[in-house]
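ugh ok fine here u go
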Amino acid sequence: MEIGSVVIAVVGVAGTLGGAILTQRGSERVKRREIELLRGHEEVREHLLLRRTCYVELNRDARQFTTALNKHLHVMRERTVEDADRVALDEARDAQRDRYSEAQMIAPAEVLALAREVNSALSQLYGQVKRLERGEPEAGETMESAARAQSRVWVHLGTMRHAMREDLGVE
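structure:
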């Protein structure tokens, strides 16, 4: 009888300790899963914020470059282009180029394809404006053709902005 009582006591203590250990391990697993989920949500939120910031800056700088090109065309019609005019245009171009470079690392393929179209249209228009400024236009390049190309850039910008808003879930 004494051996039976000892065995029962040992099994009872082992069961109690084993239950506590299993409960603790289960609790640790649940906590780990919660932490992983929180990290996942935080990463998603950070990536969304990064894309949003990139999109806002890309949209702003592309619009400012387009406006600077328009202003430069007006200056070319009204008076001689001065160094300050060239500097302002080049600063707008540099800012847009920097934002486009950032978008290449952040934006998904659909948005990046549209950003590429905007960048290409702006680069072509910039080249045309600079050739007109130097008095060395290519065949068919006139102030009017540059103005028409500049108007088409606004259409590209609208399409890009729409895609960026969709990507961010903005209605």
